[in-house]
Amino acid sequence: MSYKLLFVCLGNICRSPSAENIMKHLLTEAGLSDRVYCDSAGTASYHIGAPPDRRMQAAAKRRGLELTGCARQFEATDFEVFDLILAMDRSNYEDIRRQDPKGQYADKVKLMCDFAREHGDREVPDPYYGGPEGFNYVIDLLLDACSGLLAELQQAGSV
Ligand code: 4NP
Questions:
Q1: Catalytic residue among 39, 78, 126, 144
Q2: What is the pairing mode between strands 36-42 and 3-9?
Q3: Model pTM?
């Protein structure tokens, strides 16, 4: 059975689909794509069914990455299905934790930036209302954090 990762942001059209696709890319490069299942979701419902934002796709393409996906909303059953849930920012983290009032899944929910090794950011900044440089930054930060996450999963013997 594969290890299951869920990446979560607000809309599931910018940050979390980028994290999902970057992680899949790194896993394929490492020959581990059959050991880890990756998915993403948003805490909000605004963009359900939408593909990744065009500006996010363009930023990914500049780094040679393709983004695919169809936005969905985070749901409480995700706590059971996934082994690790990665929140892009603190607000996403709080929104997820609020759906687990007994705190029984608290250990499964972490901030994506906890795994970054080259960036000091505590959150993946929301690029939605900014210019292209914000989208480029998200890709670079997520490449760092996803590579740190993969290293940690390997070290822990999870994959
Ligand atoms: P995401 O970005 O959470 O990284 O997908 C956003 C997408 C949509 C909105 C905000 C952030 N919005 O306000 O519609």
A1: 126
A2: parallel
A3: 0.98
